[in-house]
Amino acid sequence: MYRVADTIRSTHNQDGAVVLNIRQGQMFNLNPVGSRILELLKSGSTEADVIDEISRQFGADRAVVERDVQEFVASLKQHQLVVDTSSNGEK
User: Fold this and answer.
1) What is the pTM for the complete model shown?
2) Fold (CATH) for 2-84
3) Are 82 and 44 in contact (CB under 8 A)?
4) In this structure, what DSSP letter does residue 24 have?
């Protein structure tokens, strides 16, 4: 399970989202799908729940969505926008 890092501020609209990591001073732009993924993670959804919801909401093949969500979450982790709270506990 993932949670959005405490140092993240974001604003979402129909065009996507702007995300700011206040600790590192980095800003990111997300498209509408990335914005929705971040919102779902922020609300406590599991990765499997995110995959199901994105597949349903955007009418995309679940296998494709699964791969894309995993890659996107890996990128969020790399940029310290989300924290993995499973197995090893919070970091």
Assistant:
1) 0.89
2) Arc Repressor Mutant, subunit A (1.10.10)
3) no
4) T
